[in-house]
Amino acid sequence: MKTQTHCNKRRDFLTKACPTVVFAMFGLSFLEACSSDGTGSVNVVGGDGSNSSNNGGDGNTNSGGDGNTNASGFTVNGNMVTVDLSNDNFKDLETVGGNVNILNAGVLLLRVSDSQILAFDNCCPHNGAKDSWTYNNDDTFTCGVHGNTFNTDQGQEVSCGSNNTTGKLVSYTTSITDQTLTIQK
User: Fold this and answer.
1) Residues 6+ apart with CB under 8 A from 157
2) pLDDT at 129 over 80
3) Largest CB tally within 10 Å, which of 115, 126, 163, 173?
């Protein structure tokens, strides 16, 4: 029991601490799996690639990008985000309703069919939080900071920092080829 309490405290710290600070302190990718408590927490994937190594080609840095590596399963090159859907970090996208937050790429991903994954800005329009999302299985994401709910398919798009408490999250163009998801921001 003592070990479980310690793990819960560590998990609470990691999920509540500013991910940027955690990245800077530990120099590693931040990956949080969905909890099994039914909260609908969105998986968080992200990393700056600063401690990656070249192990058989999976640590190659995308030149011209922001330092994210293929080992993380995604690359960023300007306004283009490329996701390797076969990477374990994105296994939740295998089923309809599965979702992932790529923290450093600034996108929330949502699988809506076998052939389509939608992408949205992960910045809460109300207060700018990027790491506190839950998906509600009714085409809405809820920001855990103040409980505001944002649509994925209806209403006027509301952008980050607009101070809106309702509306539609900004969406991005996506395409899937084989096991590669491409997002144009």
Assistant:
1) 167, 168, 169, 170, 171
2) yes
3) 126
Let me know: does 158 contact 139? Beta carbons within 8 Å: no
DSSP-based helix, strand, coil % in the chain, nearest 5:
20, 35, 50
CATH architecture of 19-184: 3-layer Sandwich (2.102)
Return all residues near 99 (Cβ < 8 A) that are at least 6 apart: 42, 43, 92, 93, 108, 109, 110, 111, 135
| Mean pLDDT (whole number) for 41-67 | 44
Angstrom distance (rounded) from CA 84 to CA 66: 17
- In this prediction, residue 12 carries a pLDDT of 52
Tokens of 86: 């076969």
Domain locations along the chain: 19-184
What one-letter code names the amino acid at 89?
N
